[in-house]
């Protein structure tokens, strides 16, 4: 959508300017200004976007004018450019509007340098920029609008599609033979991860797509329920077709082998056929629009699947296979809850008793969620130097180096080095991340230069053909940005080759110079990040690892407390905070896990730690989802004995956090008897735990094992059952 909106803004700008016979230089300036005015805005509400766009025009005109007026004053122009860069980066501390205005100011000054703006051409360029901003507004608010309703509708369809894709992958896993099992399991893992990405995207965009916070919280809860139910169904299915129990789909490492096959599911028996039929029916329930779900056939399918939540409706099969049917029933309930939250009330005339009971449970949960929704003040951590201040200083120093070195390479094209130095600092937080981003930009630039040489020869003097290709490459740039930074850099460089052709400044020397300036800018960025207020990768990953462990402890402790009979709290927000922190940690370890890193042992350790934390996060999410059902479910009851089972996990997490924060910490992690054994009692007449408690214990047991597994790479000693203690070797 961002790509379509930007392309529409540029195309409209060209359509407005072309009939007036403006020079190609002005067309290029208008195109870049329209692009900047469109992609710089990140505010969620339309009113805020309009205000920022209105404020951005005078900022752009001021930057353009100063760029033209200072073009002949080298020293003054360079000093102003550095000051502008500092202000633009520092402005991020003021939120989306400050970020947008800073970006508009920087990029417009860059446009003045790129097109060689002069004082004589300034009136025409200012008019062009004003037209570009007006066209950007038309594209944003009329041609490619983004209303809250549209956002929610896209998110809803995307999540349903990915959920259906995951169910399809689970069907393939059910049918896979021994030679196909590895690929089928990889597909299930892949689609599970993509479903999780979709759920996280919904969390980040939901409040702008719903009318109020309570509705957003309800939809978020239902999305989380559907995600966890689908993930659990995959685990149960893997267990049913294996000779041993599968605990998670991650299995600690993404390349872990498929568990040994078992004989509980035979390819051609009646139970397997029924299971395949019901998984296919679940996929239909996920994707069928509301208007079509009122047919009798779909209602019967829904009733049958929800009936698996009752023991008497389960087919005769082994316990592991019956668990899969229970998982289908829970997934169908989650799909029903998601449909009610997104689409509102439905026809209930064909409901079976099981479906009616599921609706009653969901309605009770909805009331509880709406009543418990409160606005919580955001935490304000002002300790130490602000990240925006640090980054502003680093970028300014790096840009000064880039200006000095760039002018030695070329007195006309030096600004490419500054642009590269600027962009490698965007969305990075450590020296390692900047190094990896600079490498990817250089790689994309080199390949893009080769493509630019060929395109320039093909386009020749065909102006509008070149502009059409520019629009295509701009869309590709936006479309590939989340997928590959190197690929995005390729499209940027290829587009610039076309712009040079339009400006009649194209030559092989210019494109080679582009590579040299890019390498210089990336090097200056790395030097500035390493020498000026540095944040090294180890420090960054340690901070984020401590955050992940803290939030893991918060989710687990709160869930166990609630499952033990404690007060109800909002566990879903805690679980999503854990997911967000884990995503940040995963991004920060990219310099350690990148193929170019020479430290193979550290790469393997980083992959191991992140994969093990993903497994722990899955079990924590499942505990939170089960605990959320406690206040209003007839099948989940509090068990006070669980509180004791969670103490060892909480202690071990605290020991790990202390070790990450202080290498001299002497805490010892504890291990011993299984958590299930800790709940057994010798008192006669005391019942064993029920099926739900058994499921909770399985999650707690895997969490306990996962936390102990983290002790090895963190070099934390572990107390053994015999009372001895030994420090593990570092992985």
Measured distance between first and last alpha carbons = 44 Å
**What are the secondary-structure elements, in order, as H or E?**
HHHHHHHHHHHHHHHHHHHHHHHHEHHEE
Rg calc: 29 Å
Strand order of the largest sheet: 1-2-3
Instruction: Decide which structural class fits the backbone.
Output: mainly alpha
The count of strands amounts to 3
Mean pLDDT: 82
- What percentage of amino acids are in beta strands? under 5%
Helix content: over 70%
Rough outline: globular
- By DSSP (H or I, 4+ residues per run), the number of helices equals 26
Main sheet summary: 3 strands, mixed
Task: Give a written overview of the molecule.
The protein is an all-alpha fold. Helices cover 71% and strands 1% of the residues. The protein is built from 26 helices and three strands. The protein has a three-stranded mixed beta sheet with strand order 1-2-3. β2 (717-719) and β3 form a beta hairpin. α2 packs across α6 (122-143) and α21 runs antiparallel to α23 (600-628).
Descriptive key words:
disordered C terminus, mainly alpha, 3 strands, 731 residues
Chain-wise SSE layout:
Elements: H1 2-17, H2 24-39, H3 46-69, H4 74-90, H5 95-114, H6 122-143, H7 148-175, H8 181-205, H9 213-240, H10 270-287, H11 296-307, H12 319-343, H13 353-372, H14 387-409, H15 415-424, H16 431-459, H17 463-480, H18 485-502, H19 508-531, H20 537-563, H21 571-588, H22 590-593, H23 600-628, H24 642-661, E1 669-670, H25 675-679, H26 691-711, E2 717-719, E3 725-727
Parallel strand pairs: 1-2
Antiparallel strand pairs: 2-3
